[in-house]
Request: fold
Amino acid sequence: MTDEKTNITVKQSVTTIVARSLIAILLLAVIITGFSIISLASSLNDASAINTSGSLRMQSYRIAYDIVRDSPRLPEHIESFEHSLLSPELQLLDNGAVPREIRERYNALISGWMLLRPELQGPDRAFYLEQVGLFVNDIDQFVYALQEHSENKLQVLAVTGSVGLGLILAIVLFLIQYTQRRIVQPLAMLVTASQRIQNKDFDIELPPTRNNELGVLSNSFAIMASELKGLYVNLESSIESKTRKLTKANRSLNVLYDCSTQLSSSLLTRTTFENILDISLQADGITALKLDVQNPNQSEWNITAGTPNERGWYSLPLQLDGEALGTFSWQGQLDIVDDALINNIASILARGVHYNHAQKQAMHLAVMEERATLARELHDSIAQSLSYLKIQTSLLKRHLQRVEASDCVSIADDISEQLRIAYDQLRELLNAFRLSLSHSDFGLALDEMVATLQAQTNAEITVSTTLDTLSMDVQHQMHILQIIREACVNAIKHADANTISIACHQHENHAVVEVADDGKGFCPADEKPNHYGLNIMQERSNMLGGEIQILSAPSQGCRVVLTFNFA
Reply:
C-alpha cells in the first residue's frame, strides 16, 4: 500500500502483524480447546470401564464362595459376571484409540472366562477354585492398565494445555511490547504534536519515518503542519474579511427583523410605515427612501425618509399576488447597497400596504354590518310596537271627537300595554347590545352570560359545552350566544320552567347547540303577535349557515336545537 502524497511504501503493516498475532492466539486456543474436548470425550468411558473391570474381581470371588457353600444363586452370579465382562463400556475398548496392551488383556480375560465357564457348569467345580487366583490376577493387571492409560491421557492433556498457554502468553507479551513500541509511542508523539499545533506552534519534530501506517501518518502530519504554517499567515486577513461580511449580513437581518416586527401591530398606520423606512435607513449605503402608494380604491399617499439629493432614485414596484400597490424608491451607493435586502424591504412594505387596505375594508364591513344589525333589530321590535301605537293613537283621536268615553278607555289601555311591551323590548335590545365576548374562550363567555341569566330566575340553569373556540370566529360566537340567550329568556319569561339545560357539543366538523326546559311548552304553529324572538333566532342560524329547530308541545317543555358546520 502506497501513500500517493508522501510516496512512502508500507512494508511492515501494523494491522497485519497485530492481526496475525491475534489469529495465532485464536488458533492456539482452538487447538488446545479441541484437544481437550477430544481427550475428555475419550475419557468419558474410562471411569465406567475401570469401575466395571474392578467389579469383576469381587464377582470372581463371589462365584468361588457360591461353589464352596453350594449356593443356589450360583447360576445367577455366573450370568451377572458374564454380563459385566461383556458390558458395552468394556467392549468400547476394542478400538484403535485404545493401546494394544489393554485390548490384548481384555481379550485374554474373555478367553480365560470361556475356559472356566464350562467347568462351572460341570460336576468338577474344584478346577475353578484352583484357577480363580490366577484369573483375578489377570483382572488386576487389566484394571491397572486401564488406570495407567487414563492417567497418561490426563498427563498429555496437562502438558498440551501448558505448552499452548505458554505459547499464547509469549504471543501476548510480544503483542504488548510491539503495540507499546510501534503504536502507543508514535501515537503519543502525534498527540503531543497536535497539541502544539492547537497552540499555534507549527514547528514540530516527529520520530524517524517507519515503513508502516503510523510512519505514513507521521509524515503526512508533518506535511500538514508545514502547510498549516503557510496558511496561517494569511488566515487573519481572511477572517477579517469574513467577519465584515457576516457583520453586514447580521445588520441586514436585524433590519429585516425590525421591519417585520412593525407589521405585527394590530392596526397599521402611517407611523408604522415611517418606522419601517427609518429602520431601513440603517442598512449600509442607503441615504434616502421613499414610499409611494397608489390604489384605485384608496387615496394616494407617500412617505419620505432620510436626506434626498439631486441624484436619481432607484425604484422597485410594490406587488402582492399580482396586484400593483405602489413604488419603493431609494438613493445611496449602488456598490454597497445589498440588492437582496432592498428586495426584502420592498416585499415587507408590499405586505404592509396590503394589510393596511385589508384592515380598512374589514373595519368598513364591520361598521356596515353593525348598522344593518341595529336597523334589523329595531325594525323587528320597537318599530312594530311604535307603528301599532301610531294606529291606536289615530283611533283614540277619532273616538275622542265622538266622545265615546268607554272606547277611549279601552284604547288608552291598549296604548299603555303596547308602551310597556315597547319598553320591555327596548330593555332586551339594550341587554343584547351590551352582550360581548369579554373572554376569548367560548365556555367562559357562556358561563358569564348564564350567571347573568341565573340572577333573573329561580329555575336551575345547567351548562355543558365541548365546543372548540378556535374553530369559530367572533361573529359565530356572538350569534351562538345570542341564540342561547334568546332561548333562555323565553324559557324564563314564558315557560315557567324549573330547570333549563344548555348543551353545546362538537361532532367532527359540525356542532349541535341545544337549550331545553321542562316548562309548560307551546304550539310552535300558533304565532303570537308582537313576538319576534323566534324569527331573529332563525335569522342568526342562517348567518351561521346552520339550521334551527324549535320542538315543543303544551305541557311538554321546549327544545331549541341549533345545528351548523364549522368553516
Notes: Residues 440-567 form a domain with the Heat Shock Protein 90 fold (CATH 3.30.565.10). The mean pLDDT is 76.
